[in-house]
Design goal:
Number of helices: 12
Mean pLDDT: 90
Order of helices and strands: HEHEEEHEHEEHEHEHEHEHEHHHEEEE
Helix content: 40-55%
CATH architecture of the largest domain: 3-Layer(aba) Sandwich
Structural class: alpha/beta
Oligomer: single chain
Shape: globular
CATH topology of the largest domain: Rossmann fold
């Protein structure tokens, strides 16, 4: 806990010193220090203890690699920071290095299952983190549950943690699709849109997002003219988009990650479609912009605050944490742009470290710590409050609407929704 408090304190002091050199302005309110995050201890005096093992399954290769690579790099960055500082002080009073064991599931659910089994049953990790995609995360749940091992997913489908009675050992860090849909709905209402079309990937992530859309849009009186699907890995969406174009919707909702979402967006514009394009939070990295290029211009999507951190008011309790992560990640990766997916990894690893610092590597105690002690944890994806009835802990309040403009992300405030068409 001392590590993040110290880091944030130094960061806030630096901001205040710079402010003192400028023209007098009202001092920004410092971000509240998280009460749950593990912190590296400077100049440790305690004896060295055994490493604390964390299993980390991510999609380093395959269609979901644009999610998995920043997740892996973020986890390795934190391991490097912690171990250079001497490790973390466990409840036994000893300083423990972190041993992060990374496995690539190649964006394949069956490989994610095998990786989880290896980490839990052979490597005997204290906590399991993974994976990048919802299908792979869902595939890992049986192994984690069977072996009474706490698992933190970096994917968004609500089925990962629900029904909670069957997901006692499972938590996750991304926002669920339901609040993402709620932000999209706010924009549609602000612009008087009543007829939309939808197209999404046919997997657990896409289904969860489409289910949230159909439920909330119907309740709001918005008609979904078409709800088209495509298969993971598809590159040609002409048939579905041609059908949607013929229905003349006022807006089109897309449920995808960059691998399919980018070429779909290019083809959307190639077909001359001009209705506003709203993606979900699955495209929240630079790869989408790089792949879609000019076609990405004007795309809107709800996402966590990381992509527009500099536009946040200084009073925002996440801003200091976000800016520090951006600086740390850039330094560790030689200038790579951060992504929300890396942020999901940051949240998962930091929460795991907080638990290890508090209760050590006992799996049952870690699970109980996650459920009962992760309160007001200021993370990258939001301010987490896990509980026996909520293993996500963040919702609509953690999201902002973002518009791609001039090859980067621009924050769209709620009072500007009407102006974004």
């Amino acid at each position: 806990m001392q590590r993040q408090i110290l880091a944030l304190t130094l960061f806030v002091i630096a901001i205040l010193v710079l402010a003192a050199c400028a023209a007098p302005v009202a001092a920004p309110a410092p971000a509240p220090a998280p009460t749950t995050a593990a912190q590296p201890t400077a100049a440790p005096q305690a004896a060295a203890g055994e490493p604390y093992k964390i299993g980390f399954v991510t999609s380093i290769t395959g269609p979901a690699s644009s999610l998995g690579i920043p997740e892996r790099d973020t986890a390795l960055m934190i391991q490097d920071q912690v171990n250079k500082a001497g490790g973390i002080k466990g409840p036994d009073g000893n300083m423990h290095p972190i041993e992060l064991i990374v496995e690539d599931d190649a964006s394949d659910a069956s490989k994610a299952t095998l990786a989880a089994k290896k980490l839990v049953e052979q490597d005997n990790v204290a906590v399991l983190i993974g994976s990048s995609g919802s299908p792979a995360s869902l595939a890992m749940i049986e192994t984690a549950t069977k072996n009474s091992t706490p698992m933190i997913s970096m994917a968004s489908a609500s089925q990962i943690v629900n029904p909670i009675a069957e997901r006692k050992w499972i938590f996750k860090t991304p926002q669920a699709n339901q609040p993402v849909t709620a932000v999209q709905l706010d924009w549609l209402k602000a612009n008087g849109i009543t007829k939309v079309a939808s197209i999404g990937v046919n997997n657990a992530f896409g289904k969860d997002s489409r289910d949230a859309m159909n439920e909330q849009f119907k309740a709001a009186g918005i008609e979904v003219l078409a709800d088209e699907v495509f298969q993971p890995g598809d590159k040609d969406f002409t048939a579905q988009l041609t059908k949607i174009k013929g229905l003349n919707p006022q807006a089109v909702i897309v449920h995808a990650t960059p691998g399919e979402g980018a070429p779909l967006t290019v083809q959307y514009h190639t077909l001359g479609m001009t209705a506003p394009l709203l993606h979900n939070h699955g495209i929240g990295n630079k790869d989408f912009i790089n792949l879609a290029q000019d076609s990405a211009e004007g795309v809107m999507f709800p996402i966590g605050k990381l992509l527009v951190a500099n536009s946040l008011p200084d009073s925002d309790p996440q801003k200091a944490v976000l800016l520090k992560y951006i600086a740390d990640y850039g330094a560790f990766t030689n200038g790579k742009a951060p992504s929300s997916f890396g942020g999901h990894g940051w949240d998962a690893v930091e929460i795991a470290l907080a638990g290890l610092e508090s209760v050590g590597p006992d799996r049952a105690k870690l699970r109980d710590y996650f459920e009962n002690n992760v309160r007001n944890f200021v993370g990258i994806s939001g301010i987490f409050n896990w509980s026996p009835t909520d293993h996500v802990g963040i919702g609509k309040e953690s999201l902002v609407l973002v518009k791609i403009k001039d090859g980067t992300w621009a924050f769209v405030a709620p009072d500007q929704y009407k102006m974004t068409q």
